[in-house]
Amino acid sequence: MRPESLMMSYGYDPSLSEGAIKCPIFQTSTFVFSSAKEGKRFFQLAYGISAPEENEQLGLIYSRINNPDLEILENRLSLWDKAEDCAVFESGMSAISTAMLEFLSPGDTLLYSRPVYGGTDHFINNFLKKMNIDSIGFYPGETKHEIIERINASGKKDKLKMIHIETPANPTNALIDIEMCAEIKRHFEGENGEIILSVDNTYMGPIWQHPLKHGADLVLYSATKYIGGHSDVIAGACLGSKATMLRVKGLRTFLGNMAGPWNGWLLMRSLETLKVRMEQQAKNAFEVAKFLQSHSKVEFVYYLGFIHETGSSEEISIFERQFTSGGAMISFDIIGGEEQAFTFLDSLKLIKLAVSLGGTESLAEHPQTMTHADVPFADKERMNITDKLVRLSIGVENYEDLIADISQALDKV
Ligand SMILES: *Cc1c(COP(=O)(O)O)cnc(C)c1O
Predict the structure, then answer these.
(1) pLDDT tens-place string over residues 66-82
(2) pTM to 2 decimals?
């Protein structure tokens, strides 16, 4: 069956919970062992002291290690990306930082695409740097040859241990070719041992892009965004093969940054409507983007649904291989600058002025002074993050109401 058919029931047996149709919230810190021998065995498995027998599963021990709300959620979340395993975290940043800390050691080098999410950028350029982990950035549009040359010229090519990319990139929907990054990984892997390729799939996943099938080792999410989808929970997720996730889950156990049972339950509830929400959001975004495209006060619309008209042949090729939708994130350049952008934002009535994205309600913000405030100015120029750029996250409202709101706000400019 398809994932959307399984989101209501997969991995949950009502007979284990008094017949409750829905998985209860297992608000408990610890679990009772049926015998001392069982407790011993569970710990052997949890700490990797011995390997599981055929079909043997890790029993419930303690909610920092496992909890039914998290395990069932992780099983369901794995279905969309066809991943072998998943770990859910207390935030998107904890998923990203835990993965990087597990696969990078002092002296190693990280290659990453720019722009990445502001929090990720900060973690790479401040905390990892402090840990003596170096990084090399590259931009959308750079070729495999150029990136390999950059790594060779850095003098650190034998230290490359991880590649982290975000595509489409926030806030301009710039595209990165996952298969190209997998080729770069293989190019250096012979000499360096394993290199991990991770993809932050928050913008398009888990419905419209599946990085594992293009050669990624890890998929990362801010589950705060589309997966949670109601702007009422902060959470994150990391997915990959059993062996890779064993390491990620191992570090999660000792950092203690797993999601709690209540957030796990909220996300399970959200997964039931994930596909219908995202499909409606994408339909609305298409209508809103068309309206913006034709408006005299709008200079340019960054929206993947128009890639066939506005993109280069490389971009069209990446889009066709990686994405099954134009998504529901739109940015646009308003004619003018900060003053015009702010007048527009302050005049919106239905659409709320807030950062974050992917929720049921539509949101608008100004990347240059808000989400991307601490990105160096020269980098922002290069990435088209200027004073005239406005970012919209389109929700599930009636699109005619959204367009009417945008129209009246543009009239005030
Ligand atoms: C929001 C976001 C994050 C961080 O997630 P949190 O849940 O806020 O910690 C990471 N990557 C992207 C692309 C995001 O949009």
Answers:
(1) 999 999 999 999 999 99
(2) 0.96
